[in-house]
Specification:
By secondary structure, this protein is mainly α. The protein has 2 domains: 30 residues; 123 residues, no CATH class. It has 5 helices and no strands. The longest helix has 35 residues.
Length: 166
């Protein structure tokens, strides 16, 4: 009887401890405030659009590098260079969509610092899309290096927008 009572008491103490730990864990950290919905949509949409276009341009750079490698030192050109229409159309379409989303995001960014951060991001984002392609051919490694810097800058501006918009 004593063993059964002791085991039952241990089980009750264990259950109480688990519920107590769960309740205190929920009280410790409140949820982080999120930016307004339109700002979040704008940030996600613009970044996904940029990544999509950047990937299309990366594919073009790789194909052009192969074309140049095959024809290097040749007196006659074999094949034709890859078309760059795909990434150019992507850039134009993405710019239009981003500008459309910007209006509603700017309306939901209430404070002056939030509006300024959003405008800075919009300016940098448009510039990065517009300057995605280089007029002269570049090597894939050069593109990756340049792309890393652009992504880091957009990441920094995005953190600033999200912090200000809350």
């Amino acid at each position: 009887m004593k063993t059964m009572t002791g085991a039952l008491l241990s089980a009750v103490v264990l259950i109480a401890t688990v519920f107590s730990d769960t309740a205190s864990a929920q009280k410790i950290r409140p949820a982080d405030p999120a930016p307004p919905e339109a700002v979040s949509r704008y940030m996600v949409g613009t970044r996904l659009g940029y990544i999509t276009c950047a990937n299309k341009y990366r594919d073009y750079v790789i194909k052009y590098d192969r074309f140049a490698l095959v024809n290097e030192g040749q007196s006659t050109v074999t094949g034709s260079p890859p078309p760059d229409d795909d990434h150019r159309a992507c850039v134009q379409e993405t710019l239009v969509k981003g500008r459309d989303m910007y209006g509603s995001a700017a309306k939901q960014a209430i404070s002056t610092p939030a509006k300024a951060a959003l405008k800075d991001y919009q300016t940098a984002w448009e510039a990065s899309l517009s300057n995605l392609a280089r007029p002269a051919g570049e090597k894939p490694s050069e593109y990756r290096t340049r792309q890393g810097k652009v992504q880091a800058r957009l990441d920094e501006l995005q953190r600033k927008v999200e912090a200000q918009a809350k």
